Amino acid sequence: MTVFPLTGDHAWLATQRLPEVTVHASGVLAQTIRAEVRQTRRFRTDVQVAVCTLSRVRETALWQEVEAAVPEHGLGVEGFVVVRRGNDLVVAAEGGHGLLYGYFYVLRYFEWMTSDFTVVERPAVPIRMLDHWDELSGEVRRGYAGKSIFFRDGEAVPDLTRVRAYARLLASIGINAVSLAAAELPDVARLAGVFREYGIAVSLAVDFIDDPRDERVAAWWSATVARVYDVVPDLGGLVVRSARDAEGANLLARAVAPYGGTVFWRCSGAEPEPDWRDRRADRARAAYDTFVPLDGRFEENVVLQVKHGPLDFQVREPVSPLLGEIQETAFGIELQVTQEYSGQQQDLCYLGPWWREILQSDTTGGGGATVADRIGAIVAVSNVGDDVNWTGHKLAQSNLYAFGRLAWDPAADPVSLLHEWAAATFAMDDRTRSELVAIMAGSWRTYERYTAPLGVGFMVTPGSHYGPSVNGYEYSGRGAHHYADRYGVGADRTVKTGSGFTAQYPEPLSSLYEDIYTCPDELLLFFHHVPYDHVLQSGSTVLQHIYDTHFQGYAEVEAMVARWQAIAERFEPVVRENVSARFAVQLATAREWRDQVNTFFYRLSGVPDALGRTIHR
């Protein structure tokens, strides 16, 4: 494997270092590890690090300790063991994938490893994938960090150095799959070759608009897939971004099955006719109504890719009922690392706490299986582009890092992950790191406070999806969302008087959401239309809560900016300027959210703020 110089922004691989490492393994991924060793900064210490397959572990000083640590059921393809005793440290695994992840584990934690220990790790979710909605033109759908790092002017970029650097970043956090646009076969082969060096399988993103019952369609896809696998034999499969007919999943699955491929079918569902006048026409019902009747009718190599919420990646939604209801079909959860509805990498919004909350959600409501327990894949739309720092906002790198780490371990603590990321990304003292983490850790909650209240969603500018537009989507083809009038606000999704969406959840969740007095405050307006003077479980009225949280959210952004300014000089100029500029935009945007939302509800209700704060009338 060729060693390429590390150039540009190294993200969380910027500060890490190791002593000399010996590698007792062979194969493509062993060569990758050797290349990593050659380009990793050195750390002077007496500790000797060995990376070896279990078949060669007896070549190391700690072979007995390693063999004793291997679980009875083995490590699997991706698991690894790390053992340290005194000045000897051994990473061992069944093969190359586990060794690569074990190597990056040691790289991440080595300078914190100060005593003897034994660690055994296996990923909780077998497929950990990032979808890239990059067009061959170089544009990126829902991209907020520049143009594509893969494509330009209809073909793959000639220099894949940055793609290799990206593959390295993904492998370091345990990502093992990506989807890319279906380019010309030589370009697909070149890109797949780079990702292969880091144990990452490439799938192709396609749109399926054909009639799956037409034999000519089946023949065309079968022949096309065969040509692709001739060039890329280890292709992961196909990711269907959009489609008209779910039966197409089986057609594509049969086409890729002879090659061991998988079809990832995004569950958008057949949405109701777009009529804001019809309060029972509910987009939230669509995926469940479409796919639950089809459960068990898909081929074994189909994975249903379910959005985490029933709508569209809003800053607060209930967990999709599909994630608890699918029983006979393989499925995964889809998240958004790209911040489409959470600030678009202009506003700081660290999503780790939200994702962990989703992954640990009880799908039964009665202490049963969590989302993480049930899924076979965790997928997200990537947030990278060709901006110098990958993500536009330097601090948005934390979301990519957190996604990978939570995909490996859904129970990981998001604040601890922030500390990991910050320590690996910036050369700074512990006090500065703690201050940066304090600024970032609660930023998702802050964003929620100054944007859409109590689970309403979609109060964004149509098209761009950035900034406030309270009625922007209210009379659009997407259907109404907040239904605000002079008496109250919220969407009625109850069985008794609304769209019946609450019935898609099992008991006791269905009854919990159906009852206005037991529905969690943060989701109240997602499920119920309530009077402004309805008293929340917090003790505040709905209207006062709207006023309070929007004033609070703006004040928290002001505090974030002030705290950043106090430590900004400790960062390199390029980081300081990038983050400071983004905070200036966020502060102005938060002010608009606060004033527009509060004024909208004051004008409707005529009820002033109980604390007498300024609301523009």
TrEMBL record:
PANTHER family: ALPHA-GLUCURONIDASE A
Entry keyword annotation includes Ligase: no
Gene3D superfamilies: Alpha-glucuronidase, C-terminal domain (3.90.1330.10), Glycosidases (3.20.20.80)
Protein name from the UniProt record: Alpha-glucuronidase
UniProt keyword annotation of Cytoplasm present: no
Listed InterPro entries: A-glucoronidase_C_sf, GH, Glyco_hydro_67_C, Glyco_hydro_67_cat
GO molecular function: alpha-glucuronidase activity; xylan alpha-1,2-glucuronosidase activity
GO biological process: xylan catabolic process
SUPFAM superfamilies documented for this protein: (Trans)glycosidases
Enzyme Commission number(s) from the entry: 3.2.1.139
CC per GO annotation: extracellular region
Residues in Glycosyl hydrolase family 67 catalytic domain copies: 115-390
Lineage start: Bacteria, Bacillati, Actinomycetota, Actinomycetes, Propionibacteriales
Superkingdom to which the source organism belongs: Bacteria
Domain Glycosyl hydrolase family 67 C-terminal: 391-613
Enzyme class: hydrolase
Record key words, sorted: Glycosidase, Hydrolase
